[in-house]
């Protein structure tokens, strides 16, 4: 188990370095090769050539590629200093550079917005896990019943309806129509109940989509597991049906669900663009949308790295949980 | 039917509301039917037998003859946890130690499962839960029926593993099924089945998934354990060699029914049903010089939805054309006694069958 853990951690660390390098190359090296003037895009369209040149020097865009990569890499872990003539700017670690548009440092903005997205993703995940898995298990146990068919129709609707439909609909009904929910985002530090009020609709909207997928996967997996020989063995031992389901069937059903959860959570933490835009949540997703519109490379790069990191960590956690659940994985 | 009443407890298609039997296990006119889209699958269609404690019954037949369905039926596993599926239709009587199981409270039957009657399955790799250690699974089986703490149950598990011949049982108790070899897994499965000293042990093709060298060890183990625990054992197999080793009585099934049953030596040395002849002819034997090729039973088992009227074996029977007197061919042959406690269901007269066996079949085997 320990060896498995060390192997996984090492693999994740290597992956992280590879991701950082790849992302940097995609945003700063490849465009240059393709003839895109990054300094020009920083300064603006009708720029003074001297200003463009200053930026080029300051960002080190003319340095050899390996030195640029190294500076960027170093910046993330120990910070870096931008210097052009007498103009010296120190960027503390973790340094993702400065916005091309607002000149703000990227990292503080990311950390500022990250909690919003994290709260959205985790809250929704709890909801969809509880309801999706429960609905899936019930459907499997009552296969062919009215409940099963009803739940699967609702699930189909959940999978098919886009967030900007269900989200706007829920806003129209509960916020503008009935006036139950204010719908404004309030930071959790300011008022917990205000935060809950602002998050409840986004949570439900996002969870509806995912719960639908999870219900379908749970149902299919559960049905498959119930046909396994070891379930028959468990019954032959004289276990009550409740224990057979809870202890023997559920444990096997959890493995594919965990895999999905790792991927989904990782991806969502990088920004639930649709949900955040629909509900005007100041999260990473909304920021990255702005950044893409403005070609604000450092921001896109920062968010991409955060997303990759989130996916890496989520997968690491899933891998470890996998080994806890399934002893055969520990050998792998 | 008259033979039945004469022979008393020997075998039976009993009358309704018949009294509790004296035998330890008695199955009367068991029918297990599964409704499907294509029609009613009559997996078991009127099976009766009985079994005393300390005795072994071998149930033999091809795939799909209803052997496993019978064993699962005795344990009540056709009705436990059949979610949303169309329910199996089960009728008849199953008497275990004076209790009729089919009409009993399902929760009562559940409590009997594992304690009074236990089962060894065919493929121990898929029949053991891959996520729990062997020890956890045996401990669980013990603690359902015994109110003891985990430590005591664990000691019991180690003791059982030791008894079934697993080396270093106190270490191996913490192994997972995938860390065991096939033979060891089956030993562990047997340990789990016997942990509660069940009085009825059903082994459903216990050696089919194992290497030939391990098969004999497992069969020896089952025989030794039966002597030690004095349980009644039903061994289900398509391998006549297995029952030859173990069984006191043999029941040959075909298309959900019993076609021949009797003491093992009778069924082996004086079989009175063409299907049994076919099974014997298709079995390789090392104890005799092989003169000819093995003789397979031609054709394949009938559909259990449209079982041929009359004798179900008729389409495959090499002696279907033997002239039969006073018999309506569309009537199913009933089990009739052909010797002491030896029964067969065939339209040919006993003399015809004796002659065919001694003149045509026996010399070729």
UniProtKB/TrEMBL annotation, chain A:
It is a multi-pass membrane protein. The chain crosses the membrane at residues 9-30, 116-141, 153-174, 194-213, 257-279, 299-325. One of its GO terms (cellular component) is plasma membrane. InterPro entries: BPD_transp_1_N, MetI-like, MetI-like_sf. The keyword Cell membrane applies. Residues 114-322 form the ABC transmembrane type-1 domain. Keywords: Cell membrane, Membrane, Transmembrane, Transmembrane helix, Transport. GO terms for biological process: transmembrane transport. Its main location: membrane. It is found in: Cell membrane. Belongs to the binding-protein-dependent transport system permease family. This is ABC transporter permease.
TrEMBL record, chain B:
It is found in: Cell membrane. It is a peripheral membrane protein. Keywords: ATP-binding, Cell membrane, Membrane, Nucleotide-binding, Transport. GO terms for biological process: peptide transport. The keyword Transcription regulation does not apply. Its main location: membrane. Gene3D superfamilies: P-loop containing nucleotide triphosphate hydrolases. GO terms for molecular function: ATP binding; ATP hydrolysis activity. PROSITE patterns: ABC_TRANSPORTER_1, ABC_TRANSPORTER_2. Residues 27-280 form the ABC transporter domain. Coiled coil: none annotated. The keyword Nucleotide-binding applies. GO terms for cellular component: plasma membrane. Pfam families: ABC_tran, oligo_HPY. NCBIfam families: oligo_HPY. Belongs to the ABC transporter superfamily. This is ABC transporter ATP-binding protein. It comes from Streptomyces mexicanus.
